[in-house]
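Hey,
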Amino acid sequence: MGLRKMNLLKSVETTIANLLEGAFGRAFRSEVRPMELARKLAREMDEHRTVSVSRVYVPNEYSVYLSPEDRARYDGVEEEVIDELSAYLLEHARREDLVLASHPHIAFHTDERLALGEFGIQALLVRPEGQSEERQPPDESDEHGKTMIYSTSARLARPLEEAGRRPPRALLAVEGRRLVVPPTGATIGRSRDCDIVLEDSGVSRRHAEIRPAADGWTLEDLGSTNGVLLNGHKVTGAQQLSAGDRVELGSTEIVFEVG
């Protein structure tokens, strides 16, 4: 019975996810897609759990901060997207057996410090008025309420205070070309959906990703078939990049540059 219930909740969550990624997703020219918001909201919920004697509480209020450009592109459908995001969080909490002090509340805000494709999420556990003491969630830890910034291209999370600090411009020297890496990072692979496309049969469709970090740039393998080499060493996890580093994907060699 428990397995059947879990599968049912998973099915409901998947249905909502398909809506966010399908009908809504196709309608957006924004760099910040509804499904990306849904996944990061669920991540913030999971990372801010508060364990009491018999329950595991999670935040019930979420503030989403968007760049002016991204916020403008949600004009006219913002309320519908928020409703679907709330439903996604509700089903996620039910499936994971997490306790919400109230129905998830999500609000969108504009933050001038954010670049196109970046968004921030602040998660809070708020006590509803009139709730009995025995059903009150415990006090939050100091970690709750911090705003984390994500880049949809790089899936990078960092505190809001760092949003205004940009790493130096990154360039990739590959096959006689010098390509500028977007400020929010770049995916590399054979797929036409990648930011940097390589015509190499030894390269996976989505092979690797270069991400901005507080102190520069990092490189990460996206689960490619043939792996990624950085200066001859296999890349595992996010690896810091320095000017002059040589990156090998399939039979293609890339030189990382800054400036």
